[in-house]
Amino acid sequence: MRNNITYHKEGDYLIPDLTIENDNKNYHIGKYGHLRLKYLKEHKIGFYTELIMVGQLANHLSDVNEVATKMVSDTVKKLAKQEGINEELKATNQLEWVQAMNNIENRAEEIVFKELIYR
C-alpha cells in the first residue's frame, strides 16, 4: 500500500501536508477523562502523542470517562448492598448513611483509578 503525501516548500525545506480528520462529534470528557488526560501527558507521552496523531484522543478520553463512570456506579451499588447500606439506614440515621456512602464512593473511585485511569 502506497500513500501519496503532498509537500509544500517553506524556505529550503519540504514540509508534508498532514491533517487530522475532524469527525465533528462533540465528546464529553468529564472528570475521569480529564484525569486520564493528565496521566497520559505526564506518564505516557508516547501513547498520548500517538492518540493525537491518529485523531483519537477525544474519543479515547470520552470512552474512558463513560466506562469509569459506569464502573464507579456499579461498584458503589455492589459495595452498598454487601455492607447493608440501604434506604432504611438513610431514614433512621442520615449522618451515618452519608458517611458510609462517601466511604464506599471513595473506595470505588480508588478501584477505578487503579484499574482504568492510571494504567
Description:
- There is one protein chain.
- By secondary structure, this protein is mainly alpha-helical.
- It has one domain.
- It has helices at residues 30-43, 45-53, 57-83, 87-92, 94-117, and strands spanning 7-10, 13-16.
- Helix 3 (57-83) packs across helix 5 (94-117).
- The model has no long low-confidence stretch (mean pLDDT 92).
Outline the low-pLDDT stretches.
none
Helix-residue proportion: 55-70%
Residues in β-strands, percent = 5-15%
- Biggest sheet record: 2 strands, antiparallel
Q: Trace the largest sheet across and list its strands.
A: 1-2
Total E-strand runs:
2
Taking all residues together, what is the mean pLDDT?
92
What is the succession of H and E elements?
Answer: EEHHHHH
**How many angstroms does the end-to-end distance come to?**
34 Å
- The tally of helices reads 5
Look at the helices and sheets and give the structural class.
Answer: mainly alpha
> What is the alpha-carbon Rg in Å?
22 Å
Tally of domains: 1
Tell me, what's the shape? rod-shaped
List keywords for this structure.
119 residues, mainly alpha, two-stranded antiparallel sheet, 7% strand, rod-shaped
